[in-house]
Structures are given as C-alpha cells and as structure tokens.
Write a structure and sequence with these properties.
Blueprint lengths: L5 H5 L3 H7 L6 E2 L11 H12 L12 H15 L9 E4 L2 H12 L5 E6 L4 H8 L3 E10 L2 E4 L1 H5 L6 E7 L11 H13 L3 E5 L25 E6 L12 E4 L2 H14 L5 H12 L3 H23 L6 E2 L7 E5 L7 H12 L1 E2 L1 E2 L10 E5 L4 H19 L3
Parallel strand pairs: 1-12, 3-4, 3-6, 6-7, 7-8
Antiparallel strand pairs: 2-9, 4-5, 8-9, 10-11, 11-14, 13-14
Length: 390
C-alpha cells in the first residue's frame, strides 16, 4: 500500500457499503434516507435556479434570503431567535455543520462527550479534529430514554469541552423529553460544556413525543450550537444543505472555516432549499410523510413485537428501529452478514454506533411498505430459523 496519513488509513468505508452499496438482490433496510421523492415544486426550483444562472459562488455563509428563511423557520418551529446576518451559516449538509462546530470549539487533545450508541460519523469527525471522543451511555427506564449522567460524571476531565446530542436519535429512534434535556443542560452548565445539538430528524417525531431544541431551555442558548438540515424532514438528501445557528462570535469563525474548506454550499441547492422553507405546499407534504412513517412504524411493531429472540423499544422519532438480538446468540456483525447471505436483507450492525451497540442491529423503515413487509418477513424467518433450537 502507498504511504498515506494515519487518519486516512483509519477511516472505515464499510459503513457506507452496508448502507448504500448492497447487491441489487438484497432488500435494504439499512440506508438512512427518506422513503419519498423530493417534492416536484422543489425540483422545479432547482431547475429554474440553473436557468436563472444561479451557478456562481455564493456568499460564504449562504445567500441572505436563505439565511433569513432559516431564521424565520427557527422562530416559527423552534421558538428560537437568531440574527440571520451574524448567527446562521448555511452548510453543505448537516454533517459538515457538525464537523465545523467541532473544529471551532475543540483543540487537539480536547474531549467531546458522544452518546453510546450514536451516529457513527461523530467519532470520526472528532478524531479528524484531533479531539478524543468519550462515550456517554444511554439508558432506559421502561421505554423512556435518558443519558446515564452518573456514569458520564466519572468521564469528565479538564479536557472535556463539549457534548453532542442527536435528538431524535440515530440509531435508536429515541426522543429525549424536556426533563432529560434539562438534566443534560444542567450537567453542561456545571461542567462549562458546549452543546452541539443535531436536530436533523426534528420533523419525524411520533406523538405524544414532542421535539424540543435544547437552546430554548433556560440558560442554554449561549452555550448551544444548533445543527439542522434539509435531508430528512424536507426530503432533500442529495441537495446537501444544512445550517448552523449559534452565538455570533462562534458563527463568525464557522464562516471563516467554510470559506477555506468548502467556499460555500451549492448555489442551486440553496435556491431549492429556500423554496422548501418558504413554499406553503411544504407543510402538508411533511405532514403526509409523517403519516406514512407512522404506518411503517406500526408495520415494524406489528410484525416484530413478540418474536422470540429479539426485543425493542417502540421508536419515538426518526425512521429507525433499534433491535436487541442477544436472544439469537449471535454477535451483531455475524448476524448482519448471515442475514444478508441467507435472506437477502441488509441491516446495520449495532457496534458501528458504539460499544453498547453489540447485541443490536438498526433497521430503517423508510422503505416503501411492500418492500418493508417483504424485508421484515424475511428478517422474521431468519430469527425463527436461528432460535428454533435454542
């Protein structure tokens, strides 16, 4: 192998193959992509942007009218007030926003608390910053999730600078309550930590659960960077538009990073995102997608609840189910591989998301209903085949 940096050698490509590059005969219940097409009026806006010659560089922090639309959205949906000129930066997808938040807040050697389990990008992004990811375990009381702050307290050092929350959460499908977020906020204040709040799944929350932005809680706005994007709730995954909102001194530095790293988010995508945020047709579209996800969630619960060898907490948000497979006696990676080989169904192995993921797998129920049902039938058959003699 040619010489290359240690960081490049240590970054795994496997998660993306499992999610996006399965053989054509495998039913994918692995990809974290909405199960719908981008609305036609948004696609038309993108085409019009090309014809209107929005094909040049944009301001580093994004078009002014898009930043204003984002500020309006945050005020309307999240009860948050931000200055679109100084406190919002448009990013090429929410993942880049999270990365730039880390680069702005963390020095090499600093530590960042990341839930266990969590979206596997977070560890990698922290390492790319030269920071150390420290995993904070998630626990349940019944079906109510929270962070194990007693255990996390023992992990905090002088180098701990931030905590990242993904709410609703990939991979577990959990939605933290106001009480839990207030406890995390008090913890952050006590240890003088920044909060990076990744809220990209905010539009996919199942009643009676409600989405709450940590920055709305007393005293937390000045220590919170809110990251969001257009990929999940608005169904613009390939457009790669996200945004960060937070204190002006921090966002000024994020803007500088944007200029040097990426120059700007796509001009065409920004025009499409503006329409997605301002066109009155988007709200009923989002509501209908939630109706469909709710139906697919019910299919998962109806088909898998009570199956011997597995268990799960009902998803509170996102389009993921986090399934405990310890009853099958198989480690997660072996389970995932055999499921794909024997039943032609793709899922994500839990250890990709953290040490607590061992003995679990994540399925996505974003797939169309007919495909989802076939995949779940095969999944159920696989479980029964491998637990019948136990």
């Amino acid at each position: 192998m040619r010489e290359m940096s240690t960081r490049a050698r240590e970054i795994a490509l496997e998660p993306f193959k499992l999610a996006l590059d399965l053989p054509k005969d495998v039913i994918s219940l692995s990809v974290g992509e909405p199960g719908f097409e981008t609305p036609e009026f948004v696609r038309e806006a993108a085409k019009k942007a090309i014809d209107d010659l929005y094909t040049h560089y944009t301001p580093v922090t994004g078009y002014a009218d898009l930043r204003k639309a984002i500020a309006d959205k945050l005020r309307r949906d999240n009860s948050l007030t931000y200055d679109p000129e100084k406190e919002i930066v448009v990013t090429p997808g929410s993942a880049i926003g999270v990365y730039q938040a880390m680069l702005t807040l963390l020095d090499p050697g600093d530590q960042i608390l990341i839930t266990d389990p969590a979206w596997f990008h977070y560890d990698v992004l922290a390492n790319l910053c030269g920071a150390e990811p420290v995993r904070s375990p998630v626990k349940f009381e019944g079906d109510i999730p929270s962070l194990d702050l007693e255990a996390t307290e023992r992990l905090v050092t002088k180098k701990t600078k931030a905590i990242i929350l993904n709410n609703p959460m990939n991979p577990m499908g959990t939605s933290f309550s106001r009480d839990v977020l207030e406890e995390v906020g008090e913890f952050a204040e006590r240890h003088n930590l920044w909060i990076i709040s990744d809220e990209v799944y905010e539009k996919i929350v199942y009643p009676p659960n409600k989405h709450i932005s940590p920055a709305t809680l007393l005293g937390l706005k000045e220590r919170t960077l809110t990251s969001n994007g257009m990929s999940k709730g608005y169904v613009l995954p390939g457009f790669r538009i996200g945004y960060l909102a937070g204190p002006s001194d921090i966002l000024e530095r994020v803007g500088a990073l944007m200029g040097y790293m990426l120059v700007c988010a796509s001009s065409i995508s920004q025009r499409a995102a503006l329409v997605a945020l301002t066109d009155p047709r988007m709200e009923p579209f989002i509501k209908e997608t939630l109706v469909q996800y709710t139906k697919r969630r019910k299919i998962v619960l109806d088909m898998l609840t009570g199956v011997r060898g597995i268990s799960m907490h009902p998803p509170q948000g996102t389009f993921y189910a986090w399934i405990d497979i310890k009853g099958t006696g198989m480690p997660s990676m072996k389970f995932t591989k055999k499921l794909a080989e024997e039943q032609k169904v793709g899922v994500m192995p839990g250890p990709l998301f953290g040490k607590q993921g061992e003995g679990h797998i994540r399925i996505s129920f974003a797939a169309p209903e007919d495909k989802l049902k076939v995949g779940l039938e095969r999944f159920r058959d696989f479980i029964r085949d491998h637990t019948s003699n136990m």
